[in-house]
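Protein modeling request. Please complete all fields; requests missing the sequence field cannot be processed.
Requester role: graduate student
Desired output: 3D structure, token encoding
Chains: 1
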Amino acid sequence: MPTNEKDELLRDSEDHFQTLLRIIESVPSRSRNISIETEERDKNFRDVVMHLYEWHAMLERWYREGMDGDRPFMPAPGYQWRTIKLLNLQIWENYQDVTLNHAIKKFKLSHERVMKHIRSHSNEEIMIKKHYKWTKTSNLYSYFVANTANHYLWAIKKCEVIAKVIKAKK
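Delivered output (170 residues):
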């Protein structure tokens, strides 16, 4: 049976999700909370994981409100797409007291909820632009891929650097 975009999205998202967790798990547990010295916002695994979690939460809000017939405010109340750096900094600040273990639990649960949303739609519902009024000129796919497979690739790169620096210190 030939694959379609929905199947590829599910497969890629799950593969990248597992790769990300493997990178984190490749670091001894006692060292996983180490922050690296960097000019970048995300300095440890927790920062990256909570960033992904919060973007899942925003996607879930957009999805819920949109499917209920409302027009979700995107990306988040008080922010516009052009102020996304400020939003991401606020996300970072909001989660500085969360432990990595708690962050991973939250992320695993949000990942599964988003996968469930994807699985609940046909390939056509996901791929057809303007199929849902709330996606405006786009399609569900663009929202789902940006907050799963593509975002996980970004996170993999970040976590590979973090893991490499931590392992080099040992």
